[in-house]
Hints:
The complex is a heterotrimer. By secondary structure, chain A is mostly helical. Chain A has eleven helices and no strands. Chain B is α/β, with parallel strands linked by helices. Chain B has eleven helices and twelve strands.
Amino acid sequence: MNDPRPHPRGGLGARKKERIDSLARAGARRDDAPDTEVASAGTVDDRAGVSLVASAWRRLRRNVVFLAGATIVVLFVILALVAPLVAPHDPSAGLLLSQVRQQTNPIPGPQPGFPLGGDQAGRDLLSRLLVGSRQTLYVGVFATLGGLIGGLTLGTLAGAFGGWIDSLVMRVVDVMLSIPSLLMAFSIAAIAARPSQWTVILAIAIVQVPIFARLLRGSMLAQRHSDHVLAARALGVKPAPIVFRHMLPNALGPVIVQATLVVATAIIDAAALSFLGLGNPDDRVPEWGQMLGAAQTYLAGYPHLAFYPAACIIVVALGFTLMGESLREALDPKSRR
Amino acid sequence: MSTAASPPDRRHPTAPADGPAVHDPAAAGRSDATGPLLSVRNLTVRFRRQGEEDFVAVDDVSFDVRAGQTVGLVGESGCGKSVTSLAIMGLLPKRGNTVTGRVDFEGIDLLSLSPRQLRDRRGRDIAMIFQDPLSSLNPVVPIGVQVSEVIERHVGLSRAKARPQARELLSKVGIPDPDRRLSEYPHQLSGGMRQRALIAMALACRPRLLIADEPTTALDVTIQAQILALLKELVQDSGTALVMITHDLGVVAGLCDRVNVLYGGRIVERADRHELFATPRHPYTNGLLASIPRLDAPRGQRLSPVPGSVADNIPWDHACAFAPRCDRPVAACREVTPELVTDEAAPSAPGGLPRALRCHHPVEPGQESR
Amino acid sequence: MSPARAAGHDGHDHDRSGEREQQREREHAQEHRPGREPDGPAGEGTDGDVLVRVRGLKVHFPIKRGIVLDRTVGHVYAVDGIDMDIPRGRTYGLVGESGCGKSTFGRALLRLEELTEGSVVFDGVDVASLKGEELRRRRQDMQMIFQDPLGSLDPRQTIESLLLEGMSAHGLTKGQDTRTRLRELMAAVGLPTAALRKYPHEFSGGQRQRIGIARALSVNPKLIVADEPVSALDVSVQAQVVNLLEDLQDELGLTYLVVAHDLAVVRHISDVIGVMYLGSLVEEADADSLYEAPLHPYTRALMSAVPVPDPEVEDVREQILLSGDLPSPAAPPSGCRFHTRCPWRQETRCDDERPELRVVDVTGRSVAGDADPTRRGGPGASSHRVACHWVEEIAAGTITPRRRAASDAEPETIGRTGDNPPGRSADSGA
């Protein structure tokens, strides 16, 4: 089918006019200045080139979905940085502990100075939510980074060498994939003797490793068989530069998109682990997933205790997902000009 | 673009399109044709683009096809030939584009039909075959079922009755061992056989118009010869009108009665094939013919390419889009949009249809660069 | 006049000479026994004008099955025994239909595919036996141009960096003015220097192909394998690239192997042409004699199928329509690989005896070809070689083809030769 590609001289009216004028001038001078006519190869303008990343960024800047996602993510990161400064109270101090009555009033309600009330230990809920963003960001980012590093290593090994190394790595990855993620988390918590924030991160990271590895290997293999890698081989480029300059960078697109999406799932997974009691037992430093997990005891009487951290998680996860999806669209070769 | 905005039902005064007004039935060589079967008038397709102005893929295209006639739409990538065929068939995506003009098939404007009415027409009266036969066939349904489905749908036969017809069709298009092929899946067939199967499906309801969009581009030359011979046979035997969309001038030379050369979304030259190849009038047609090596020409001659690429086109608004690549431009080429007018100066065979040309400074007979 | 008709015409006034044929066959057997040619620099002195000498080249791809342990269940015989001499400074055109192995051959020549068997002597060195760093260094001499101009350029590299890459891989950036060299390269392919700062996606198809050519030139190669160099381009642009390739050859003394399916393009650009069918050469001759007198039935059919952009020719063009399609290279037919589709197929020899490529002198044209010594290549180039048992009889017209209509195709699958009726109209000359 005919490629309805954008008109090459399209662009906004003014720019087009300029083009026509310059072409017309070139045409008028044709006889005395033959080098200004359309060369046999066609015209090439003098502007510096725009790389694919740059042109993807130009498209992204206009994309409403991406802007919405990016706004949420940026706000979240800023909040995580400044939370201790803006939090009205110390999130670990039981300021409302005096109001907590195990039988009649386990959760202190909203009151002046404490707009969302306190938790079961009498700590200010708002301050804990605000400061909790920091730990949540840690979990999301470090779990993703861990998964990414592991996945990149395995995927590059498999995709770059192929053959029996590929088979071996992929069998290992398959075994990892076949273990349920919760079981994996249980095991890691057990090995670590005592669950902590880092066991949560490690558990989630290890679960992500095979996903990243498979993804990268698949796209590395596609690159391996692409003409431009064949061209580099034919040119006599050494094997290492072929892998690291040609195959890996071109294979990274889907992995970067996946990483953005994984930040969201990592935050949700951390919440799930906490909910099942596999999270960080030390609740002096708040984290949204852990707060959600702690709220389950009081879910019937005091649902707001679960609602606030859950809402925060949903909004942040949505932010990362929106960003990831629009990145995927922007990097899709089919949507390229 | 001002010229594209003409009202759909207005006949462009300067765009002769082999219509009844200029058409002498006796001269056409096909006495049974009293009027055009398909009459395309001022067809314009615009694609909307985010943040940029519309891209006019097909620009004020008018042409006629009569029963038993083979009409060629020839041009390079981006010339609008495929979009034209999709617009005629109503197969363009619903969003992101606007189609204006008229596409009269036996007097009914296809563009005004509802999607349902159009679906009925497609397959029954008008059929289309595409360049890539594999992606045009459903990979998980056997060939036989796919062919019978067309018959069931448009002729209203039961599956049991449609199957023998499907078998007959497959053997008609030269698929050997049709009984076995009926139960095979598209991936089990070779490229040539797939294209034959597609042609069988297109012929299932004896359409009066067949649109072939680069039907042999994906095929090898020996298979191409088979398919072209098959199409030629079909047109001769059944009187089906054929619109042949191709970039290959060799295919056009052997197959088409009437040829429309497209450039930048507009028809730039129209002529009967013998006249077109003998005396190309538009510099683009002339340049194309001079740039392809011929198997039967003496070796050692240098080719004369058309400089630049379609990326060098300028908009049609106040110029000729081909002007930057043209080897014989005059000042008017960059100031005035050339119109498609009847080409009086061109030599034309006695009794043939008049030629049409969109050029300020056409190639004079005898000056062809060959 | 169409080549097919010309061939038919020439055939009439010719009388077959069995004795001469046998003699030729013996000569050929000594000259071109595959794989037994003395390799290495020893042969260099006598074959100074042969840049690449290929003997008995085979590339078989294993078909693997299995989940844990890969089991080889068969082979795709992509290239199955090819002898070829590519004369220095000339263009060898390799034509054939998709799936005939021509692209695999081109890549195997550059050691971009693993060779199963055979030798490739390039400028006196057997590159088939080179490994690792030694092979990498050799790549400077042999470059490639690809069919898909966009896909063969790394989308993340500017033109400058992709041109510099090959140069630095071979130490060509040291102690030289690389800027000048880059500008020279761009000028050589007709692009402005401004293009250096741009990325591949910002060019038109023809310009991209020029960039691909500039990259191939960047390391000063002796041989360029061009795999379908123009088939992805618009018709009006194809001629630009063809002319550019010709100019560069004249200027730089390059040797080309042009692999393509478009016979008209190959004929235009090539000095010597080889026709490939299902992994082997069926005919080889210099461009003029091949087109004036195609001898192998497949070559005849192939050439008669090419449409000519001239209605006058088209109206009278005689076509030899082949039945069916190319058999699978994983299960090639026995005997002559073309016998399942050959309109001239005979009941003897064709089915069970694989014909060797032998020098044939049917029309005396190979002698006429020698008249222009400047267009002559190395040994073998002046001879018309054909792999067909019955070529003399076919040329003489004592065997005539079966004719059929377009809608009368026969089963194309191989291994079903029983379905094919034997040559009906064949009054066998044997």
